[in-house]
Amino acid sequence: MTADREIQDEELMGIAQDPEQALRLRRSLRTIAGASSLDPALREMATEVLSGRVDVKDAFQDPRYTEAVYQRLHEMRRAADDQTYAERRQTEGQFAEWDARQQAELDRERAERDAPVHGSVSGGKRAGQR
Questions:
Q1: CA 56 to CA 100: how far, in whole Å?
Q2: pTM of this structure
Q3: Ramachandran quadrant class, 118 (left: phi over 0; alpha: psi -120 to 50; beta: rest)
Q4: Span 29-40, average pLDDT
Q5: Concatenated DSSP letters for 27-83?
Q6: Mind listing the pLDDT tens digit for each residue in 74-120?
Q7: First vs last Cα of the chain: how many Å apart?
Q8: Dihedral over Cα of 78, 71, 42, 39: its sign
Q9: How many CB atoms sit inside 10 A of residue 69's CB?
């Protein structure tokens, strides 16, 4: 992504149901923005949302972007339908490896996000704690 500014998870709470979903959405947008194999309209949408120039709700209602999403889903479905049993098994294994790497990265990002802020007036204790 080439934008100077990137939105924070909190800025996605208008569409995300919780902070975890916002984190995953922002990471997905980063992946889309950086995937040269995807339709330029999808990459543009992700870049615009990440930069804060386009609201995520507006992006999901823009016909250029929704058409690109539907086209990509169609391509994925067609590719999945064309796979042999052996190819499906191989793909499942590759996905499991990719998913484990993604989970480790998410865990790292969660730890960074949830780490206590040094110099905090509250001493790091949450409301209701003694």
A1: 27
A2: 0.70
A3: beta
A4: 92
A5: HHHHHHHT-TTS-HHHHHHHHHHHHTSS-HHHHHH-HHHHHHHHHHHHHHHHHHHH-
A6: 999 999 999 999 999 999 999 999 899 989 988 988 888 888 876 55
A7: 43
A8: positive
A9: 16
